[in-house]
Specification:
The structure holds three protein chains of three kinds. By secondary structure, chain A is mainly alpha-helical. In chain A, about 10% of the residues are buried. Chain B is elongated, with a radius of gyration of 19 Å. In chain C, helix 10 runs parallel beside helix 12. Helix content of chain C is about 75%, strand content about 0%. By secondary structure, chain C is mostly helical. Chain C contains 19 helices and two strands. Classes of the chains: A mainly alpha, B mainly alpha, C mainly alpha. Chains in contact: A-B, A-C, B-C. The interface between A and C is large, with 53 and 74 residues.
Amino acid sequence: MALAAPLSSGFGIWNPLLWLLVFVISLIIAYAVWRSGFSGYRKGTGRGRSYLSGNEEPAGGDVHIRAGNLYWGFTEGIKGYYQQVVPLHTGIMTDNLLWIFWVAGVLLVIVMVI
Amino acid sequence: MFLNLPFIVVVLLALIGIATILLKRNLIKIFLGLTILTSSVNLFLVTLGYREGGIAPIYTLSPAGVMVLPTPHALTLTNIVIGVATTALMLSFAVIIYRRYGTVNVDEIRELRE
Amino acid sequence: MISEFIIQNAPALLIAVPLLGAFLSPLIGRISRDVRALWVLAIITLTTLLGLLVAYLVYTGGTLIYVFGAAAPTLSIPMDSGGIPIRIILTLDALSALMVIMTVTVGFSVILYSLSSDSRRSGLEAYYTLFLLLIASVLGMFTTGDLFNFFVFLEISSLAAAGLVAYKVEKGKAVEAGLKFLMVSAIGGVFFLLATGILYGQYNALNIAMLASMIQWTPLDKLALVLIIVALAAKCGSVPMHYWTPDAYSMAPAAVTAMLVVVSQASLYGLFRFCFTLYGLTLTYAVIGWTLITLGVLSMVVGVTMAIPQKDIKRLMAYHSISQTGYMLLGVGVGLAVLGDQALLSSYGFTAIEGGIFHIFNNALYKGLLFLTAGAVILRIGTSDMNRMGGLGHNMKWTMILFIIGALAIAGIPPFNGFASKFLIYESVFAFNPILSIIAMVVSILTLASFVKVFHSVFMGPRLPEYADVKEAPASLLIGMAILSGLVIITGLFPEFFVQHLIAPAAHALADQSGYLAAVLGGA
């Protein structure tokens, strides 16, 4: 069927339907494993509560890790790069326009010389 | 020499326009710089359409001679209209920015950065 | 009879209908808000149908020519002009048709979305005028066969988009973004017009095909090409001329941002069109190809690294669109760099161009989807600051699912469409230069990382007390998003079908300069 043909790049092929099939099969296997487990869970007995060394569970807003704290390590790790790049985004309009003229000049030199 | 004079004026006008855009800090003056830059391109187009001894392309009662192709003039007219629209929109932006920020200095119009 | 008329004049109607709809909408809006909404919906539906019709005609019948004012719409060269096409002309080849399909699908979805999300704003009469004008101008940029008309549509799109970006004012911040965008566009427009003038002064023609048949590689042509590349690269937001992008994208209403993605792609289309069709083999393709590749790699890397520490959800996504633009520049740039070498071109050049073009198509779909989901979240909780979000997955399940589809697609996770186009780019670029391919993959990983950040901080976590009674996004928003996500999934599941029937003809149309010339000039 033409619709299900694999995508070919000339070097390799990729068939998303096959991938989907594998995904569905692994889901079925996971379901089978889950079904074969012991089902002794009863609702409303407090079994679902998290156990934090006997302490009370904190309120919702306190345990959520906010966006500003994510990837701190990544940004810290390549701090040198960010210290170079972030200050370029000054937000001043004329700086942005200056870049256009710079690129035009550099490109003109490259194209004219080569 | 005389025929090249308009092109020299075009380059000079363009340089004045670019310098005004990049060096002035007042928004209104930057808009004026852009208008000068646009005018230089308009002058360039009009100069392209100039033919020595050519006559206007109006067929009614036209004298004998070489007619000028009106395309560059049409382009110039279109660009003047577009330039007016752009300037009007920019000036209205400047009005709102002055009301909200209390300044028209580009160095201080940088709420959005990084 | 009427259908024949429509089919014959479809390319002109494609631009005329949204243009007419735009300028009538304030008038019709005076009756009532609902009538205006219906009018806008009718116009966009009609435009979509016309766009699909035009695309069908092009894909089945080859390049379509429409000449205004001629005796017959396909008569590009008047009898008495001595072989010079002087009239205003629309030229639609497969690439234009693909872009038209993209524009009308995204346009239809965002209008549907916007009719509900922006219904309570003031000043809607101007809003929809500008919106339809923006769609009309983008369609014009994709279909025109004339250098100056491209400039006119470019300027119309800049003005309309700047007005829409500034539309919300937001204590002046949106106006600031609009001003920055308009200033970059104005400089780009001046550059482009200067290039048009230079080419006209040398060859006395504005028709792209006519120019292409005569073009040399004189220093003036070089200057014109540099001006065109810089103007359009600045307009499509490639690093280092990208500074307007995050400002404009983050400040515009969500529906407008999704459309702005398409506007950027229109500039990108122009860039590719002029490099391949206007200059073709006359330009030093290796140098220009590497220029595009350099711009692309810079955009990919700087875009994604700047996105990771962002705190505003739409600003983060805006940096990602810069990074995605980089992929397209990389793919098509590789194709351009080997344009003169037929063996390399058929070995991996075409695949790279296909990947780049497929990515343009895919990006418009999933990027639009992501901006619309961000808009839905902002609409419901009233802030775009991710530090103040959390736990929204409990209340906004459908938005979350649609967001996941978009996020996985942009990160290039199978089986969504982002992977299909990135797969083509990776494999072909690897054959060209392995390092570029590795950079592209690393950028893809970082893209996934930053969308995990968005997903976690917006949708995951316990239900926050301040958002305990947030409601799911309204149905018409969800429908608009669902159309896009459905297309994301379909193009992801059947990539070869789309590549064979839509993308490959477009890539061949782009690389085949003589075909374009023959269609317009009649075998000359």
